[in-house]
Amino acid sequence: MLFPAGAAAYLCAMTTLPPPLTDWIAAQGWHLHPHQEAMLSAAGRPATLLIAPTGGGKTLAGFLPSLAELGMAPPAGLHTLYISPLKALTADIRRNLRRPIEGAGMAIRVEDRTGDTTYTQRRKQRADPPHIWLTTPESLALLLSYEDAPRIFGSLRRVIVDEIHALAESKRGDQLMLGLARLGQLAPGLRKVGLSATVEDPPALGRFFAPQGCALLEADPGPDPDISMLETQAPPPWAGGGGHYALPAILKEVARHRTTLIFHNTRAQAELFFHALWLQNTENLPIGIHHGSLSREQREKVEAAMVAGSLRAIVCTGSLDLGIDWGDVDLVIQVGAPKNVKRLVQRIGRANHHYNAPSKALLVPANRWEVIECTAALQAVQARTLDGEPRGPGPLDVLCQHILATAAAGPFDADQLYTEVRQAGPYADLDRASFDACLDFTATGGYALRAYDRWKRLMLRDGLWQLRDPRSAAVIRQNLGTIIDIETLKVRLKSRLGGTPLGEVEESFAATLTPGDTFLIGGQIVRYEGLRDMTVEVTRTPGRDPKVAVFNGTKFATSTLLAQRTLEIMNREDWPDLPRATAHWLGLQRQVSRLPEPGRLLIESFPQDGREHLVLYGFAGRNAQQTLGLLLTKRMEDQGLAPLGFVATDHATMIWGLEQTPDPAALLDPQTLQDGLENWLAGNAVMKRTFRFAAIIAGLIERAHQGRRKSGRQATFSSDILYDTLRRFDPDHLMLQITRDEAMRGMVDFGRIAEMLAQIGPRIDVQRLARLSPLSAPLFLERGRVPVEGVARERLMETEAARLMAEAGLE
Amino acid sequence: MTPPAGSLSFEFQGEALCALPSGALFWPGSGMLCASDLHLGKSNRMARRGGALLPPYETQSTLARLDADLTATAAKTVICLGDSFDDQSAEAELPEPERLWLLRLMAGRDWIWIAGNHDPAPLTLGGSHVMARTLGRITFRHIADPKTPQETGPEGSPMGEVSGHFHPKARLSGRARPCFLLDAQRLILPAFGTYTGGLWADDPALRPLFGANARAILTGARCLAIPMPKGPSG
Fold first, then answer.
1. Nearest chain A Cα distance for residue B115, angstroms
2. What is the pLDDT of residues A102-136, one digit of tens each?
3. A734, A438 in Cβ contact below 8 A?
4. Considering CB atoms only, which of A455, A722, A793 is closest to B55?
5. At B216, which CATH number?
6. Statement to judge: residues A296 and A412 lie in one domain
7. Which ipTM did the prediction report?
8. Residues A694 and A778 in one domain
9. Is residue B97 less than 8 Å (CB to CB) from chain A?
10. Can you say whether residue A518 is alpha, beta or left, with left for phi > 0 and alpha for psi between -120 and 50 degrees?
């Protein structure tokens, strides 16, 4: 966090720090970066956003004004609140802050508070908060919902939001901004500091953080990173993730560097890779693993080993994406395509904390498709182009939760709360009607045909809104937060002793399996045997094509920018700069089918695994491709083509069903494409999923708590029932409006699809193939498949029912 | 009267019975319709307890489906197999339009309310209020009695039992649907109410109640019969 001294001239800026701290820093032979000094002199400003590359010491920059203000022996009471998106980060910051504080003999209490903090500790902290409190957005929301929040936060002077670029990408950020607005009321004169990695639009992030005006400080981005693709002896496979083919080359790199971070896009991939790495690790290099599903003890052990410098490499996922200080990392390896350039740049920042030396990174594409994507990503990094979607206004489900949490803390005045909410960047333009609709929803349910008169949740008494039943505050607190876990089930090899875990699959995927189905997990083909104790039991089936080729694909969508670059690379005459195997693969695609071209639309049609497939290579970005999938499956259902589902990526949409589409180009007629669209969209699985998440956040559905799935109990009924009931009886209800708005963020409007089709015009190339093409193979591994509920599903069910009855000898 | 489209007829205790897509059971021979676990007033009960304010339309939705089945079958006798109301207060707080709707459905019909664990006391509504009712060789009660296969009728062969309570559901081709479960002696109905969840048919609570050749009849657009799911070890 601090850096070896060069110019002693910088020391004069430290006059506001207490002399013992200045002395301690000087004794270490360290000096401050220009942006760290700038933060110190900007200490009095109400809001500052510091943008610095990872490894630029920006966290210390955020804390310097607090250390200066607190001085050697501050009075008791909370002074600075530090909020980070990760639990692991708070522990790390606490360790790093204690060094200078203890070194300078300052009497400052630094403590963290996360979901991992013990009950006793939490109670103690509420009664007597530390000077510097390190927490997460969820823990802050919880603290703000307590009756004694005004007392806890009354003395607060400063708040620091770390990794705000990451928080701004999700509803956690919206919730946090509402929390900061609340803090601003409880502690007038509060000053805010936001810390961000490099982003594409700093002023927009500033408005998100502090719409009343935010000073922007941009640190020197440092030298260009040293980044390249890892050369391997074995070529990458056609499809599949994991990057196991590159293990020998990766081990060689680990041996050549001091400390290496090996990033994966999913936890399951990280697990499998780690396992495979150990089998080949003949030199016994100390290598650890770190990801979000590991237990707290395991994570802490790895973190401690890393800090002590006793690990040579660590296999990890996004849980390490965010500025944890790992000391001597000198190489970052990214396995699998980085999916968007911003993420790649932020990950590269993990390597080399010597601020002015270039970071070193190697890309390991998992398959040949990703070789092209990685090539495109490298070009984008060199051109210093970042990508990102502009964010929309703050979602209303988060506001509903905030109103409930506010009521849990105590009675509130609606006008005051409305004014306060508008202090939060995402809600700066919120109109009064929308606010009132949210308030009405939380109070009465907001139903058009029947109001809960007797059993309102919030009541207006003496001009103030409050809980009708004070005991419901506990329920509200239990349901706080905007992270909705996707239910997953563990997959194990079947054995009497509880077999080897292979990974996790989403519960919705497990639900589609019948015994005998084969599927791919972590690069191996397994046979589904059954479900036992909420674990999917499988056996190995070597050398067979998987019946259901799903799961364990990539988690993040590629950006539109990368998709365009990828298309451009594919369209070259030949590919001398690509690895030979990949060039050969593209050549093969050209030979058996054809390559997608700009201004044209390639459609492939082929049977595979007993289903007819249709692949449209639009390169229009995931949202547009997903919308296209919804539109086309509707047309196909109308025409009796029995579609079963589709999956969309940034470059293609793949649809599968029971019947071959005789004339795929005719499906794309913009005139007929829109007929009956609204109803179709409303009944779609995408909408139902969106509704579920929004309904949990808004407090319409309680979260499923652990341990509820007990035998002998009827589970709570599905959120789909609520969705269908609302659609039928109350189609203009707030929750349905929120769902529509939200789903539309993940899709594009019909106008843009029509525009794309108009540009393509008749230039549609349909290729009928005998089996899947080289280019379509990776699509079989994509996640996020959307089922289509139509005739095909009924037909499949009837056939399956008849088969089962015959098998059992019944009828 | 022909049963509604999508129904599935089957024989039970020598009688021709009919599983309706809605989850109700129709007995054409005696003009009787049976529905279980209506859970009327569920949203109201949740709200009263200070929980979420669910869309208060499930009573309307449930009555509309019951109304449609009564019209389609012209049933003269109705048996509600218990848990008709989500609790006793739910009956008292039934909104007036829905009370009138229910009374209209009951008018001119022999209506039998069987007590459930959610509504154990007699209701204030009309009709008969009983713990169980036997028609011919079939006894209707809320919760299956594990001893019933040993009960015998006048000729010495085991009597049949129709019950609800468990809200069984089963999967087919990756889709979950509420279902009937049956073997030669026992028949369990799915929950009819709109706001009801389900219990998997292979749950340990259900498996011991049925013999080897038990079947499940899945509800949906068309009722479909499959062997009763036995779970991984079965």
1. 19
2. 999 999 999 999 877 888 999 999 999 999 999 99
3. yes
4. A722
5. 3.60.21
6. no
7. 0.91
8. yes
9. no
10. beta
